[in-house]
Amino acid sequence: MESDRFTINMASVNLNQVDLSVLKTLLYSDIFDFPLTRGELWHYLISKKRISKKSFEHSLNRLKKIIKQKNGYFYFKEREDIVLRRLKSSVIFEKKMNIAKNAASYLSKIPGIKLIGISGSLAVGDGDKNDDIDFFIITKRGELLVTRFAILVTLQLLGLRRKRQDKNPADKICVNLLIDEARLSWDKKKQDFYVAREIAQLKPIFDRDNTYKNFLSANQWAAEFLPNIQGINFQNGFLPERNFYPLKIIGFLLKFSPFAFFVKLVQLFLIKIHRTNELIGKEILAFHPLDYRSITLSKMRLKTQKIGLLTKV
Fold first, then answer.
1. Do residues 250 and 153 lie in contact, with contact meaning Cβ atoms separated by under 8 Å?
2. What is the pLDDT of residue 271?
């Protein structure tokens, strides 16, 4: 977990608005023990307006007493240890990305899937060997539950499904957020910095009918918190062809309305009896036993207050 060992002497530098944006952005990543490259730091800058690369570079030069750089990664003074952690995680990251792409190559054959994206820590290149792999999926209009059923059966057959009771979820696929394409725009009550960052760092690995572009367009509000974000490139948009016959059988069964209706009822029943903080709706299914949004924003506020850095996220 993040360390509170570092301190910032705010009086050592006469900070301007760009400096504050750089510090806030690096502080957020420090919560996750994750140093940033120059490009990542600029791309995810927390600001009310877009910051030019020239102003950004001037700020990095001004903040040399506070921010250090090693192996191309920026971090706070006294936090050099997290650079080694990221270097080690890069190997794990590649392994998990290969697993994710392999799983997506099968799931992409499910007609109800419009987008498969990697979310969570893996989306930013952070890999812990004991972590599972989070998938964010957008489904066809009106096919949320039947598509989820096909996804879970496929992952189960592949031996990649993350189950609720798993004690060792390493390298398993956790489909923790599914939304219907009818609800691409995020709930206004939760349009904050945390969600904006999650949207910005999403790594799409399969897209059908320009769904990713439509998703970004529906959530342009994210630029109010992260004005430097731009379209993100695919993590290998070309997946290998797969012939997975069990999927054909599943697809055939789901064409029958009585079976599809039964599938929906069973899933809703199972979800509700195990419900904790899950969000269940006709157009969204979110499985997050822990409220990471509130936890993370709370940590950010505490850290900024501790070092005397005012922010609103």
1. yes
2. 79
